[in-house]
Design a protein that fits this description.
Radius of gyration: 18 Å
Distance between the termini: 69 Å
Number of domains: 1
Bound molecules: heme C
Strand content: under 5%
Order of helices and strands: HHHHHHHH
Shape: elongated
């Protein structure tokens, strides 16, 4: 009985792999990228890269397990939605009002510890932000927003 159940689950998991979905595209050359086009300290850009860029840029790094269904469904969905809301790879081409709104949302999301998503930090220890790191990002976003408004 147990053998049959285990076998059944195995067959199901293998079968599911045919329904993986399509991973959102990756591009390494992004001339409008936030970090490439702005003066940002290496501390802040390092945090953004480590904790946000997998879902909010075109430079997503896919870990091996992200290709395994059903994990792939959640990961690809987060990346598609994340990029829709905020894509740092397209920064320079965004309207000023959009940039300011993103930076304001960022202070709220990061300040309240809602970003990066918890399902992500469980697997990416280096993306787990300390209070100091969250403060650093929030303070940066506030002063950067003031700069953007002057552009
Ligand atoms: C695992 C993927 C993932 C990671 C990593 C991630 N985000 Fe998000 N982010 C999302 C998704 C999905 C949404 C859209 C849905 C939502 O708001 O939950 C989003 C939405 C946002 C929004 C818009 C929220 C709003 O109010 O509309 C901001 C700002 C944001 N993220 C900033 C960040 C920052 C800054 C980081 C890094 C510190 C980060 N995110 C890391 C997936 C991610």
């Amino acid at each position: 009985m147990i053998k049959k159940i285990v076998l059944g689950i195995g067959v199901l998991v293998v079968g599911l792999q045919f329904f993986r979905g399509t991973p959102p595209d990756v591009a390494s050359d992004n001339p409008d990228d936030l970090i490439a086009t702005s003066q940002i300290s290496s501390e802040v850009s390092g945090l953004l890269k480590a904790a946000c860029y997998d879902c909010h840029s075109n430079e997503t790094r896919y870990p091996w397990y992200s290709y395994i269904t059903p994990v792939s469904w959640f990961v690809f969905d987060h990346i598609n939605h994340g990029r829709e809301e905020v894509n740092f790879s397209e920064w320079a081409g965004l309207r000023k009002s959009k940039k300011v709104r993103i930076l304001k949302d960022l202070t709220e999301e990061v300040g309240e510890g809602k970003m990066p998503l918890e399902s992500y930090t469980i697997m990416h220890g280096d993306a787990q932000l300390s209070k100091e790191q969250r403060d650093l990002l929030v303070n940066w976003a506030e002063s950067f927003s003031a700069e953007v408004m002057k552009e």
